[in-house]
Structures are given as structure tokens and as C-alpha cells.
Amino acid sequence: MTASPVSAGHEIVVSGSISNLGPAFDALSVAVDVDLRVRIDEIGPVTSDADAIVVEGQVPASGENRIVTGFTRALAHFGDRPRRARVHVTTGIPMKAGLGSSSAATVAGLKLYEALTTPRDPEVIMRIATEIEGHPDNAAAALLGGLTLSCQCEDGRILTSAWAWPADLGLIVGTPRVELETAFARQVLSPEIARRDAVFNLQRSLLLVRALESGRYDLLREALRDRWHQPARAQYVPGLTQALALDHPAVLGVCLSGAGPSIAVVAAPGRQADAASALCGVYDAIGIPSTIRTLSARPPVGTARAMPSP
Question: Are residues 144 and 17 in the same domain?
């Protein structure tokens, strides 16, 4: 086994993501510039399973810590005993907000195991992350960066492809001061979808990919429409119905970010401030406090990485 050349002071950096992108449920996701960082403060010799890592910093006060889950699942799968480490977590990804915080933590745990043992097959890492998360889209964006397409095969493989999000398209994300558990947001979805709605979403998923590839931004408003998960979740997401109806020249399209409650707006080139103001106006009109973020897409170069701390 060839040890990974990681020492104390290195950070594992994983990006958040906007997934689903309207009709492309569990398939499309884009990595954005909000990050989870796991700094390795101390590193020691190979040790037993029980005390392999100590995780400090911005971690859940209760419930599952997905960094630990990712790490322990990698340990169970690969079997190589890791070096002992004490790590410190900081994050700019809001939790339970639909920006991929869970997947980022899972991927960070998997990459931490790699850092403390040796690099692994990226396809296997992707498969383990999907098994933990239950869906591949956010994990693909966290691992690969850029705009990602992921496909679960019947034999367990996860096929992925990543390419660049258009550099001139801004992404505005509004996060109301409410939390929405992804598990609950998935439970409210019907297990079946009418054929006409399936066709509607399939058409717009393909239209969305083509619009982004070809620069046909005039197609984005229609391409981001959805007839399945967004209508089912609208009653739990403040402002979603109003945001989807936004008619503003700076707003090229609107979708729910992941399972919500964040809402994503695709801003026209050079109109990010105007698009942010339009989305802010939605929350002001319904009296819901919110945080508005102006984000950029990460390039498709593999966003989950270990590097020296700045």
C-alpha cells in the first residue's frame, strides 16, 4: 500500500451543490462555491478502528455525523487501517437547506479515509457515497465539480459525466430561515408519476442540457419547469410558488435547490444583482427572513481535494 502524502495542516475541501435543476430529479447537479473544509490538525501512526479520527468544530450537535459515516463506511469497504487523526471542520454550506451539506460531509469522510490511507478508485468512492446518500446527484457534484450528470445502473455502478457550467450565468440562492429534512422532503413525493408528467419532465431535462450547452438561455425558463417533485414540495417551501412565477428580465429561470427549502435562480449575464433583488422581493412580500447568496459554479476539475491550508 502506498501512503497518501498528506500531513498535519492539510485540508480536505468539498463543495456544496444545487441539485435536481427542475425536471432532472436525482440526475443533474452543479457544484457551487460554498465549501466544507476538514483541516487535519494532528496525524499519527496507524491505529485501531475505534479511535481512528476525532472530529471537532462545526459538527452536528446531535444525530448522524456524515463525515464519520463516510469514513467508517470506507474503512469497512477497503479494510486498510488508517493513521490516527484529529480534524477540525468548518463549513459555509448551510445544513438542511438543499445545498448538498449531507453529501459534502459524506464525501469529506471518504476523502479523509483516502488521505489517511491511500487513494482509491474514484468510481468506488462514488458508489459508496451514493449508497450512503441514497441518490447520486449531489455526491457527483461534490466529487467532480462543474455541472454533473449521474446515472444509477442496475448492477450498482454509477455513471457520471461532468462539464462546465456556462461562465456567464450567475446562480442566486435564497435560503429561508426554516429547515427541511431531505428524508421528509422525499417522503412527500408520490411513488408513481403520470405518463404525461413523465414525458413533460423528460422533454425539459433534455431541453435544459441542450440550452446550457448551446447558450440558448431563452429556453431556460421552460427547461427548468417540473411537474413532479416541486409541486409536491411547494407547501413546505416558503416562497417557492411565488419564485417560480417570477417574471423579471434578470431571471432566466427558477428551481428548487435540492430538496429545499433553498430556491435557485439562474441570473442573466451581468444581472446577478438584479436577480438577487427580485428573489429577495419574494421573501419580503411573504414576510419570511432569508439569506440571499450570489454563487458561482465550480469548474469540473474534481472539487473534493486535500491540499495545504492557506
Answer: yes
